[in-house]
Amino acid sequence: MGKGFFHVPEAVNEPVKSYAPGTPEREEVLLTYKDLWNANTEVPLYIGSEQVKTGDTRTINPPHDHQHVVGTYHIAKKKHVEKAISEALEARKSWSKLEWEQRAAIFLKAADLIAGPYRQKMNAATMIGQSKNIYQAEIDAACEICDFLRFNVEYMAQIYNEQPESSEGVWNRVEYRPLEGFVYAITPFNFTAIAGNLPSSAALMGNVAVWKPSDSQMLSAQIIMEVFREAGLPDGVINMVNGDPEMVTDTVLASPDFAGIHFTGSTDVFKGIWSKIGSNIQKYKTYPRIVGETGGKDFILAHPTANPKQVATAISRGAFEYQGQKCSAASRVYLPKSLWSQIKDFVVQDVKSFKMGTPEDMTNFVNAVIHEGSFNKLASYIDKAKKDKNAEIIVGGNYDKSKGYFIEPTVILTTDPHYTTMETELFGPVVTIYVYDDKNFDAQKWADICELVDNTSIYALTGAILSGDRYAAAQATDLLQNAAGNFYINDKPTGAVVGQQPFGGARASGTNDKAGSKMNLMRWVSARLIKETFVPATDYRYPFLGE
Ligand code: NAD
């Protein structure tokens, strides 16, 4: 602690710029896009003070133009991962002792660098490497990451302020120690902000980290490291190791100093990691913290009193923005028969109006899906829906990977509420609709639909209900209590904002430690209570022992 009780700057959400035609930000991001498109960026490993080029490289290809090469990234061998761990532990000696306000200043500076001079580089890298349109890039790679960094500083101050009572003659204090060891961060492709947040939230609390980014997010991962370094993050506090996820993970999990994992990605991968941690438990010096946000099968449920245009817009935006590759994206929808034809018309109209193509052309709402594996998986489910008797494609259904991995936004209508695409996470621009009978509708029938929604999926990440009837909204809020960690009333299930809607799900969707909240930061500290007695007792006898 420094020499004062410092107030941190109040965190405010980073304003989202419009990028409307004629704005300076539009011109700037397009120029930066061109530069990065032609730059041939080389991404090393970041280990301690070194930028390691192993010579074993992979190319970085934009999903919307997969033959074009925008750069290469170097792949770690086991010895590099081991070095990253030892460098992290070495850095811990100084970092864990540094005053909190010094740590805070680094990450606040990183936020200001991203909001200012790095904004368009972050956006352009995300547009190119992850195929996001400018709006999706801006809300992620510029705004959300700034929000994580700034709000986390505010939450850290709140945590440190939480102190116990002290009785007369005693002073009780709680010290929020970083974990003893290092934290392993594994990040997904779909949010640049998550990639920045998972290692930095632990580091902010005084931890050191080994970070393994996704192979499909390497371009923006590189800019994140540039920003952290320019912000003054000391060497070794966050070590970035790229490469074979299993080898990197097995090497990390074999270390006795492994103290916690901050994971976001798919459910099966997380379950596999959890099992490995379980089998290694005798090796560790402390019980590792296990934090994971994983898959979803997010729902929209409309009551017969819902407004059809609002329901349609929730579907169009909730299912298709960023090609449905948000963990919160709506992918199963339950609609009343009485509203179906109206909602269908609106949704079909919306989907037909979407333009699809490169993010450089800003009139495109939809871009490519992340890689060939994802493309092939989505195409196979679309083909299956074309053949199955209990499914029908009402709009979309085409795909083409000749230049980029383009999947047309697709709406499947099914007569089976347990049809495979109502239950399986596809992670792409495909939404499935089930229409329920709302003849002679009453509270019991609404309860039955809620039960169906609740029991259909193993996941519980996000869900939205739309209803003009307050009693029905209240009933669904209660009945769907465990169906979603983020529950929306009269809204789409996507678009959580740091500081406003802390994000995370339960059941197979994760440990629900709510990224961008105090709850999450609490996982990266281990409290020590210090009790100090001013005038200690000198006689063991209590008064009751008197004759
Ligand atoms: P993914 O599981 O394929 O990859 C995530 C990370 O895990 C990557 O860094 C990857 O290299 C690594 N990985 C892959 N296999 C591994 C293994 N065997 N051992 C260790 N690490 C391994 O996920 P993705 O395709 O990058 O992201 C999409 C998934 O992430 C979806 O399931 C989505 O729902 C989920 N997601 C969840 C949230 C949330 O907050 N709940 C947010 C974003 C994404």
Overview of this protein structure:
Keywords: NAD, Oxidoreductase, Proline metabolism. Belongs to the aldehyde dehydrogenase family. Pathway: Amino-acid degradation; L-proline degradation into L-glutamate; L-glutamate from L-proline: step 2/2. InterPro entries: Ald_DH/histidinol_DH, Ald_DH_C, Ald_DH_CS_CYS, Ald_DH_N, Aldehyde_DH_dom, P5CDH/ALDH4A1, Proline_metab_enzyme. The two termini are 50 Å apart. This protein has 16 helices and 23 strands. The relative contact order is 0.13. Helix 1 (24-39) crosses helix 4, helix 2 packs across helix 8 and helix 4 (119-130) packs across helix 5. It is an alpha/beta fold. It folds into two domains: 24-59 and 69-294 and 510-530, Aldehyde Dehydrogenase, Chain A, domain 1 (3-Layer(aba) Sandwich), CATH 3.40.605; 298-489, Aldehyde Dehydrogenase, Chain A, domain 2. The model has no long low-confidence stretch (mean pLDDT 98). Residues 186-191, 194, 212, 214-215, 245-246, 249, 264-266, 269, 272-273, 293-296, 327, 425, 427, 461, 503, 505, 509-510 line the site of nicotinamide-adenine-dinucleotide.
Compose a concise summary of this entry:
The chain is α/β, with parallel strands linked by helices and 547 residues long. The protein contains 16 helices and 23 strands.
Number of strands: 23
Q: Which residues form runs of ≥5 with pLDDT under 50? A: none
Give the rounded overall mean pLDDT.
98
The number of domains is 2
Can you tell me the overall shape?
Answer: globular
Largest sheet: 7 strands, mixed
Strand percentage lies at 15-25%
Strand order of the largest sheet: 14-17-18-13-12-20-21
- How far is the N terminus from the C terminus? 50 Å
